[in-house]
Design brief:
There is one protein chain. By secondary structure, this protein is an alpha/beta fold. The chain has two domains: 86 residues, Roll (Ubiquitin-like (UB roll)), CATH 3.10.20; 153 residues, Rossmann fold (3-Layer(aba) Sandwich). Helices cover 29% and strands 26% of the residues. The strands form three sheets. It has a six-stranded mixed beta sheet. About 3% of the residues have low confidence.
Length: 244
């Protein structure tokens, strides 16, 4: 009837009129991703009719990008599309393979004969990220002891959560974390940049670990170079091992 014909006419007009051709694509919330990369990933082209776009499908595709933690795409009539992004934030770095790490005096640095590896970034949720142009200057702790076995992402997620918790401590944050070793996942080891001391922790007692660490921080500052390691992984016990 007339109603059906009117609906068909309206649909044809909306999906074919140049008035609704896409002329602007606005990317919001991107810190590391550039606009061109997002457009290319989504397959967006200028001049396409805004009503012919599968916005639901584009939203589903957007969150498949490794750097995108969340996002939403909206039509803004008559000719604009907004892409709002919440990016994943890198908290650490990993290298491909298993380079041999350090010496007794500098365990947080790669050994001289270690092979150059591809550096990848690790987000808060354990997602591995390919470095982007704006991430080269980030001073991120190296995560080692992860390997390439099944469950690597879960291990990285646990490591990322630990780094976030550690950096919430002003004392640790101001000194900087050089490396986090996850070889023993329940007993991670941290190396600080400013203090060349191995600090052994326990995931199950992390709150207590940090409390003890803050309590003995003046001692660490004073005796740092003479300490081989500090073991906080035991309940109600702190072990300080001096260099022999």
């Amino acid at each position: 009837g007339c109603l059906g014909a009117s609906i068909n006419y309206l649909y044809h007009y909306l999906t074919s009129s140049p008035y609704f051709n896409l002329t602007q694509i606005e990317i919001e919330g991107n810190k590391y991703l550039d606009k061109e990369a997002v457009q290319k990933f989504l397959g967006l082209n200028a001049s396409v009719n805004i009503f012919s776009l599968d916005v639901k499908g584009l939203n589903q595709r957007l969150v498949l990008h490794p750097w995108v933690r969340d996002g939403v795409i909206r039509r803004v009539l008559p000719d604009r599309l907004t892409v709002s992004i919440v990016e994943r934030e890198p908290v650490g770095a990993v290298v491909s393979g298993r380079p041999r790490m350090g010496t007794e005096s500098h365990p947080y640095k790669p050994a001289q004969n270690s092979v150059s590896r591809t550096r990848m970034l690790v987000a808060q949720d354990g997602q591995i990220l390919t470095p982007l142009k704006g991430t080269g200057g980030l001073q991120l702790p190296l995560i080692t002891g992860v390997g390439e076995q099944e469950g690597t992402k879960a291990r990285l997620k646990k490591g990322a959560e630990l780094l976030i918790a550690l950096n919430a401590s002003p004392w640790i944050a101001t000194r900087g974390i050089a490396r986090l070793d996850l070889s023993q996942i329940e007993r991670p080891v941290v190396f600080l940049k400013a203090i060349h001391t191995e600090i052994r922790l326990s995931f199950s007692q992390l709150k207590q670990n940090l409390s003890y660490l803050h309590a003995i921080s003046p001692f660490i500052e004073r005796e740092g170079k003479g300490i081989a390691y500090i073991d906080l992984s035991f309940r109600d016990l702190v072990i300080v091992k001096p260099h022999i």
